[in-house]
Amino acid sequence: MTVHLKGRSLDSLLHLTTEEIEQILKTSKRLKLQLFQRKKHPLLKGKTLAMIFEKPSTRTRVSFEVGMWQLGGYALYLSAMDLQLGRGETIADTAQTLSRYVNGIMARVFSHQTILDLIRYSRVPVINGLSDFTHPCQGLADLFTIYEKKGRLSGLKLAYVGDGNNVAHSLLYGCSKVGMDITLACPDDYAPDPGVVSKAKEEGKKSGAKVKVTNDPQEAVKQADIIYTDVWASMGQEKEHEKRVKVFKPYQVNERLIREAKKDYLFMHCLPAHRGEEVTDEVADSKQSVIFDQAENRLHTQKALMAMII
Ligand code: CP
Ligand code: NVA
User: Fold this and answer.
1) N or C of the chain: less Cβ packing under 10 Å?
2) pTM of whole model > 0.90?
């Protein structure tokens, strides 16, 4: 089946088909190899990307900016506070204005509605670079990393231990689309959005993936091929940090917990990590940790995505 993504926006992995995800991963592999072989690939020569940031970033900012440069294009870093958005200009007007200058918009925002509004009012493709609801670019890089390390996606089991947050939501959509079992272990009041879980279960029925949510980390990690965690307090939740550290303590990924996993398990984390909280140094720095491969793969998968949609 031929996949055409030109002109499309990405708010969530739910809105990509399995074939589209596979095509992005194949293109990522090709671009990564070309970069390694020092072959130039100016697929976006003369194109521009506006990058709006309402929140800080290391990986997303650098990987989009470097990626755009490697594709022959140009990326503009726009802090939301420096834009007129910070003085009350609407998202609708901002989207329409930026659309007259650039060929694509990437945005990292608090409210997911901001992404949906950007998509609605923009004439150019919009990429979600993280909202409070989803982090689809992270999900793509994660699937690519797992494929590189394990040689397949379907039939594996991923255990996500911790907060049922934006990253958890993207993994729910991503894994269920590609046939990977996913079990999330979250404290009762921090489970993922039930709507996301039920959509992931529907996707799982088509792909053969089992989707499960529990509050027992041991159960989740049992026989897992991948153990994934993320911070206990996401950006914007800093005030809840102290309370969350207490609630999440039994959910730390440490040497004791990983004993339940398969011997050749991979440890994954989207980063930034709060070492000593959701994960110990021992696990994060172990041979089975692929956290920096994930970070690197943000570059390759986002280049593929941009080359296909812009
Ligand atoms: N994983 C991720 O999105 O990292 P940054 O917050 O550094 O962009
Ligand atoms: N859940 C984290 C992910 C950071 C990349 C956050 O939203 O802060």
Assistant:
1) N
2) yes
